[in-house]
Design a protein that fits this description.
By secondary structure, the chain is mainly α. 48% of the residues lie in helices and 4% in strands. The chain starts with a helix and ends in a 5-residue tail after the last helix.
């Protein structure tokens, strides 16, 4: 009986067969292709982990990828840009009315700098649409909406009222959604 209890407390016994370290699952991009995560000359992988003797497991979640920095699916990318477009154009309701406005109209109240900042955010949304694979004619229409919103937005007060009514970001998201609905599912 003592032999059994001794082996129990002795810890794990070495097995005859050595187990290989488990390979993490492959990383798949939004087009369904496997992304080969290599290392740069400093020893860091594509996500900035590792290198110079750093702990490779630091900051990793249950899936083995760093929190919030893993590759996103098409649906996740679209949800992210849609949420930003809603924040920019229709996040708030004017009390006592049904008029919706976003931070685009608020930031635009700052002369020139506010309009340049909101135009830059809108251009980032168009860049993300291009990363989702939107065709050139759709990107051109989206850029036209951003340009119109940016130019008219430079006019003090009247431009801000135009921002509230025109909602360039929501127009762009609707156009992108219509295009994505016509595409075959890749997720």
């Amino acid at each position: 009986m003592t032999a059994k209890s001794d082996t129990f407390f002795a810890g794990p016994q070495p097995s005859a067969r050595k187990s290989r370290p488990r390979r993490p699952p492959p990383v798949i991009d939004q087009d369904g292709n496997e992304v080969h995560v290599g290392r740069d000359p400093f020893g860091q992988d594509a996500f900035g982990r590792g290198g110079f003797g750093a702990d490779p497991n630091f900051g990793q979640g249950f899936s083995g990828m760093a929190f919030g920095f893993g590759p996103l699916t098409r649906a996740q990318r679209f949800a992210r840009i849609e949420a930003l477009a809603r924040l920019m154009d229709v996040a708030f309701v004017l009390p006592g009315t049904n008029v919706r406005y976003g931070i685009d109209g608020l930031i635009g109240l700052i002369p020139v700098v506010g309009d340049l900042l909101t135009t830059a955010i809108s251009l980032w949304l168009v860049r993300e649409a291009r990363a989702l694979g939107a065709p050139a004619h759709l990107i051109a229409r989206m850029l036209g909406n951003v340009a119109l919103d940016g130019v008219v937005g430079l006019v003090p007060f009247a431009g801000d009222a135009f921002d509230v009514v025109f909602r360039a970001n929501m127009r762009n998201i609707r156009m992108l959604r219509r295009w994505m609905d016509k595409q075959p599912r890749m997720d």
